[in-house]
Structure to design on (419 residues):
């Protein structure tokens, strides 16, 4: 009898200690968070990339949120006619941020964090009803606007049909359809100053959104397979399957891909010579993994 | 106390499950079997034509070729040779006539016929298992 009461008391005490510890830890965490916010230590600049674990967490959050909110939407059958009608809407509203196969997006979108990126791989990542939900509602804090109040229901499904057709579109077809879409293509083209700077090149890679098509060393982003991985580029013998892998050739390829390989999916992003030299310096010195 | 331990184990398991579910990959662009060829034959042909001398291919990795891009994840890639949408038909065309599709490419025309190319494609799209 007495032993049982003892056990009860010690259980209550353990619970109390645990509660007090949790409370203290919670208060400490809140204070630490407040200090970080109030101290201004977090860099809100868009040039500073998300830390890879942060990116991963945001990616998961996005995936599950969209999956949940789109669960009751029923997608209509998507037809070639819908995709064709979607072309006009995509050219007017989407190309400036997402580009198209073989077509570069506007310069402003390359400076966004997270970067909008191309949509050719979206049908692998999302169901059609989920794409419709994203087009309709947009995504907070990403720059993706909601189009529900700007495009009719039919128009939004037409855009989804067009996106669903992107994986079958050749870059040449993409260029024919979307090269004239309105977007800003002017970029700073100051000449190179001094020696190539690999660290600046690492940042430049993210500022031209290279990670939205290539797994890019030193740049956080999704596991992406639109272009080949840039890890271990130093050890490869050819660039784009066409040029011997030298620093000058890499710079030329980064700046003028279509001159090297007509019909390539890699768009000309108006990369200045300085930026291309710095990128090449980073990619060719980065140790193989 | 034992109940608390059980709850803890449950919570940790649930958390792990949630994390693992989060790791699920995107769908492949070309699903296994879509190429229609015989993948075991394809593996032999990839060996015979020396593809691994230039490309990294699962199961043929002893060569670790670095001239061409790695092909281990080719089923997930959106483009072939950077110019064609990734479909089994385009893969067959590319293997047979790379220089007709992308003049100037380092990839040689090896005189592969259509049946051989289909088998090679079948292996490339399904390099692991079953």
């Amino acid at each position: 009898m007495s032993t049982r009461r003892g056990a009860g008391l010690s259980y209550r005490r353990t619970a109390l200690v645990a509660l007090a510890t949790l409370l203290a830890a919670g208060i400490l965490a809140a204070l630490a968070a407040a200090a970080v916010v109030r101290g201004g230590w977090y860099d809100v600049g868009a040039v500073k990339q998300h830390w890879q674990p942060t990116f991963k967490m945001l990616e998961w959050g996005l995936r599950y949120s969209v999956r949940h909110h789109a669960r009751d939407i029923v997608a209509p059958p998507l037809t070639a006619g819908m995709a064709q009608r979607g072309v006009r809407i995509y050219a007017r509203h989407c190309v400036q941020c997402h580009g198209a196969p073989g077509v570069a997006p506007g310069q402003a979108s390359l400076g966004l964090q997270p970067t909008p990126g191309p949509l050719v791989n979206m049908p692998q990542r999302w169901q059609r009803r989920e794409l419709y939900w994203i087009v309709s509602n947009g995504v907070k804090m990403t720059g993706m606007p909601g189009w529900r109040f700007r495009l009719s229901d039919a128009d939004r499904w037409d855009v989804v049909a067009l996106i669903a057709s992107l994986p079958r579109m050749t870059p040449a077809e993409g260029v024919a359809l979307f090269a004239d879409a309105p977007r800003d293509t002017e970029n700073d083209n100051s000449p190179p100053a001094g020696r190539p700077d690999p660290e600046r090149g690492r940042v430049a890679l993210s500022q031209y959104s290279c990670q939205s098509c290539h797994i890019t060393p030193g740049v956080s982003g999704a596991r992406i397979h639109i272009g080949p991985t840039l890890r271990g580029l130093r050890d490869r013998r050819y660039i784009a399957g066409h040029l011997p892998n030298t620093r000058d050739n890499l710079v030329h390829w980064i700046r003028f891909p279509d001159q090297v390989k007509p019909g390539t999916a890699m768009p000309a992003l108006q990369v200045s010579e300085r930026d291309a030299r710095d990128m090449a310096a980073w990619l060719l010195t980065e140790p193989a993994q | 106390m034992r109940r608390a331990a059980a709850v803890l184990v449950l919570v940790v398991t649930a958390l792990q499950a949630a994390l693992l579910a989060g790791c699920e990959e995107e769908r492949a662009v070309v699903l296994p079997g879509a190429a229609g060829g015989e993948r075991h034959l394809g593996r032999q042909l990839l060996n015979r034509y020396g593809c691994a001398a230039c490309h990294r291919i699962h199961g043929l990795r002893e060569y670790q070729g670095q001239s061409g891009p790695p092909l281990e994840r080719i089923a997930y890639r959106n483009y072939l040779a950077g110019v064609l949408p990734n479909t089994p038909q385009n893969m067959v065309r590319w293997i047979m006539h790379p220089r007709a599709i992308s003049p100037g490419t380092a990839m040689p025309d090896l005189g592969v016929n259509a049946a051989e190319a289909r088998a090679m494609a079948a292996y490339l799209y399904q390099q692991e298992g079953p």
Observations:
- Residues 30-125 of chain B form a domain with the Immunoglobulin-like fold (CATH 2.60.40.420).
